[in-house]
Amino acid sequence: MAEKILMNEYKALAKETWTNISLVRDNIFEWSVALIVLNPDSPYYGGYFKALMKFPANYPFSPPDFRFEKQLWHPNVYPDGRLCISILHQPGEDSMSGELAGERWSPVQRVESVLISVLSLLDDAEVSSPANVDAGVMLRKDPEGFKERVRLDREKSREDIPVGFEMPTHESAFKKEEVKHDDFSWSDSEVEDDFGGSDSDEEMFDDGESEDEDGEGGGGDKEDEDEA
Questions:
Q1: Active site residues
Q2: Segments of the chain assigned to CATH 3.10.110.10
Q3: What is the CATH number of domain 2-168?
Q4: What is the pTM of this model?
Q5: What is the mean pLDDT of each run of 10 residues along the chain (228 residues)?
Q6: What pLDDT shows up at residue 150?
Q7: How many CB atoms sit inside 10 A of residue 206's CB?
């Protein structure tokens, strides 16, 4: 079951612009993932942040393991690339950390929800309990210095962009979403066909109206005969 679920998720995510994924040694339980930040206001915008995801045999009942391949300056990223993020923690409440079950992993979560949560974390760091204390302090006390430090990691990450891969931008991704939206538009003829707006229906309606107007609902001739 895990293999089938992961393959379906892999095929769906392969179409997205904000990530670039591939299988490691054709192993469906091990993915190479690159996250691409499309928020132009983010200090991480323009980076190509590669990570490794490993999935347990009982996925989706247990969470995957996520680890950035290169050091990334962020309050919630450990020096070895691991993340401090609730969605990757084992299911159930944790009285020690205070995390609720709804904040942690559950079988309804998917790879996409993990990756979106990671992207969200990059732009909205949790500095109250940082994995990287120095990054957390710098973000609070020296935001400009923090951005400059991130810039170094961002530029280094771009060395991993594959040859021939076109990096998406905020504008190009937005245009692609517009195209996807247009794929679902219907023409007037399709709407008429699906909702009974055909010419034959209009003719039937017109015939009924003409009878009511001329014969007052079809009872005019009957009244004339009775008077005679």
A1: 84
A2: 2-168
A3: 3.10.110.10
A4: 0.73
A5: 96 94 97 95 96 97 96 95 91 67 86 96 90 96 97 97 91 60 43 41 44 47 46
A6: 97
A7: 10
